[in-house]
What we know:
By secondary structure, the protein is mostly helical. It has helices at 2-21, 27-41, 49-76.
Amino acid sequence: xxxxxxxxxxxxxxxxxxxxxxxxxxxxxxxxxxxxxxxxxxxxxxxxxxxxxxxxxxxxxxxxxxxxxxxxxxxxx
Length: 77
């Protein structure tokens, strides 16, 4: 079961990286989900709760800035 979670986490991170290039995919959310799966698979020894909390804050802030930048860009053009 641990191997399946690790593979799913790595796939989510890889698809998240593609999401930074292809805007239809939620890149930051997928990368956070992959990091969470990797942390869960390793009993939070490699990725601890502090690291995952920081990654969650960065993912939420980045997603919010993506929407704000799109709205401001549409407003000024």
